[in-house]
Amino acid sequence: MGQFSERVLVVEDDRQISSFICYALKNEGFSCSAAYTGQEALSRLVSASADILLLDLGLPDMDGLDIITNVREWSEMPIIIVSARDRDMEKAKALDCGADDYLTKPFSATELTARVRVAARHLSKLGGGAPQASRSVGGLQIHFDRRLVYLDGEVLHTTPMEYSLLSLLFKNIGKVLTSGHIIREVWGAGYGTDTQALRALMAGLRRKIEKVPATPRYIITETGIGYRLVDE
Prior knowledge:
The protein is of the alpha/beta class.
């Protein structure tokens, strides 16, 4: 069983689900505590009693989206949504508010703990001094300082837009980025919400980095939401 220093706060009003989540996380070596209302969660978060937040959106006293907005005013802690709301619009709204990941109920303990491990890795890199000069996933590597991309040790020639897209994904490894967020970051806030250009740009990038673009290894499509660069 692995040991982690990160403390996870589970905000879930269904005590049976909360117990299941805490049991799974403690088996992985995480420290875990539970809150059953939004106000209780905010009180604990303000007192710095958690590093990672697992949050249900449908709480009895407030909407989970309000908690995300509140936390993002003062913290970059990883926020993982665990919710029965499975509509793409709901997922996109939570991610745009500042959540890092989204798990739809029901989910397995295996998937849950994998997502929390990813969050723990991200957390360990926050406040770590100077930004990383390079990052890699499998055979794909990016050098931010030289604006170079390598695939299996060979320089990969990318267009400026392809580099901007890949750079954004690498800076958010493992996180689900909504199409709207990507468009704002790559094209600018005034571009609009048309995803056709993004789909075309993504298709071109995948042809360069994926052996089989139809079944991508690196950049995963989160249907109806956006994209995620896998964390291996």
